[in-house]
Specification:
The protein is mostly helical. The chain has 13 helices and no strands. The chain has helices at residues 2-31, 51-58, 62-93, 99-107, 118-127, 134-138, 145-155, 160-168, 173-181, 186-201, 205-210, 219-222, 234-264.
Amino acid sequence: MKKSLLTLKYLVLIIFVLVSIFPYYWMIITSLCEHEWIGNPTIFPIPPYLGCFKNALFDYPFLRWTLNTFIISISGTLGCLFFASLAAFSFSCLQWKFRDLIFYVLLSTLFLPAFLMVIPQFLFIAEIGWMDTYWGIFIPSWFSMITVFLLRQYFFSIPNEILNAARIDGANLWQIYWKLVIPNSKIVLMTLFVFNFVGQWNSFLWPLLVTQSNKMDVLAVGMASFGGDFNITYNQIMAGSILSLAPILLMFIFLSKYVSKGLEMRIT
């Protein structure tokens, strides 16, 4: 009986795995097909057609889009983690009047639709002259209340005795934050780095609104130009998607151990 249940369990898991990887498989075989639309799909196109990858790299400023996306993703993610960790440090490790009240008021903004902030942010960026610049794209992403919340909850797990001992030894607030709290939060910071970086890498709406020239486009916006007005080159789009997915996949492979540990951590 137990053996049958175990077999059924693995069978269900295999089915879920196959369903999960099928979209990626379809993306690969579509990108290797010479025709824009696969009328008669095959298990694997023979011979594989690599012209779509060549067109994506050389017929479009794909490398420029990749560079823009990398700069924006790194700058936006690092800035978000820095300011969020400072706020979380203040909301968890310091005592000041109305601390919790202000935190919960700010936390309540998570219930507002994200699109509600697009127009005020757009008007502000336009007013200060940051349209079509890197600053205008990634600076709004520096302020993430969900990141503050997750870091605050983790900082609460750092014993107060350690913080008090550092104060007795003469450490100032910056030293406690930089030399004590941050080194003890590497796992959660790396996990949030991966999640924020992926979100920045795949962002579409805000870069589309802020950028005005093709040289400032990011990958998600640039690949929208693949295909004409009356036809959609699915093989070209899939080839570009694979190329844009490669950096994210490599980053996840190298940082997967931090993500796994971060997801296993208990946040009180």
